[in-house]
Amino acid sequence: MIKFLIDNVLNDKPYTKHDLCVILQAKDDDRQYLFKRAQEVKEKYIGKKVYFRGLIEYSNICAKNCYYCGIRRDNKLLERYTMTNDEVLEAAHFAYTNKYGSIVLQSGELSSHSYTQNITYLLHEIKKLSNGELGITLSLGEQSEETYRQWYDAGAHRYLLRIETSSKEHYEQIHPNDEQHRFENRLKTLHTLKKLNYQVGTGVMIGLPFQTYEHLAADLMFMKNFDIDMCGMGPYIEHKDTPMYNWKVDLLPLAERYDITLKMIALLRIMMKDINIASTTALQAIDPIGREKAITIGANIIMPNITPKKYRDKYFLYDNKPCADEEAEDCVRCLEMRIKFAGGEIGYNEWGDSKHFLNKKIHDSTD
Ligand code: SF4
Question: What is the pTM of this model?
């Protein structure tokens, strides 16, 4: 029965949220069947290539207060930092000379004029130092349309903004109830990014308090209906200095959160065959070869951390984040080996843009 449902999704036949719920609970043989089909879809539509996005964690200062996040504004136990512009450019140069093809610039959410202008400056400089060759993804939270436009014009062309959960009610359970944390704003912002021609990525956390299989199935439907270009989703891992840590006793065991994440990735791969799917570091925090497993069953993007080592232990969104004590050079050598082990090959010097996005553009221009 579950295999039949998986085949329906695979063959783009009509399916329901309930079908997705059932698939997400697949066990043993059915679970393997899901992973096998996802692996085949990935090989057919994406190929073996895995693309690097050198991750630069620019600043851990954040104006927001999400209940689950280690760098939330009210966490006073954290030493705050912002990388200097020279450090950011040095990291970008490292990515460029090591043929990463792309970087991700990520930070807590800030929207002051000096912050947004400095990002624009950095984008111009990164483009300059790489002769326009480094692709740039931003992950800098909710911003105004004007800011997004300015950053796009300065050279960013992909944007990651996780919805975290597509249920308004659930969103409100995991965020403070104030103007800064409105579900409607998050949705509106995702639409703005799409309108401005960014390749848009979103994603959810898996295994959150109050979350059900129905929520997760709805999340997958949301991503399909929004027609996302990229996805980054990972298991929720609690951070001891956050309000959500109080719900720790109600959580699924880590191994289960991890397993559902793999099934979410595999199922999304067969639902949206040509999107980019990131294999997130949170998977590795649970299983040392978690990221490789995700690559095997559907993911095609890895984000090696190239933030200077001195800042690494200050950007903990969750506890036990891996590779915090490695230099970028060690990190890339280790990853090369890991990706080979997962049967993939690295797309050096390539942007590795979302094929889904590119296919949509071709389709639009021929309409
Ligand atoms: S999840 Fe993002 S916006 Fe929320 S507190 Fe953390 S860094 Fe800030």
Answer: 0.96
Ligand 1, residue 71: give the atom nearest the CA. 6
Using 50, 70 and 90 to split pLDDT, how confident is the model at 325?
Answer: low
**Using CA positions, which residue lies closest to atom 2 of ligand 1?**
108
CATH class, range 2-10+17-366 = alpha beta
pLDDT in tens, 10-68: 999 999 999 999 999 999 999 999 999 999 999 999 999 999 999 999 999 999 999 99
Q: What is the DSSP string of 99-166?
A: T--EEEEEES----HHHHHHHHHHHHHHHHHTTT-SEEEEE-----HHHHHHHHHTT--EEE---B-S
Q: Report the nearest atom of ligand 1 relative to the CA of 73.
A: 5
Q: Closest ligand 1 atom, CA of 62?
A: 8
Residue 51 φ then ψ, to 5°: -105, 140
Around ligand 1, the residues with Cβ closer than 6 Å are: 62, 64, 66, 69, 71-72, 108-109, 141
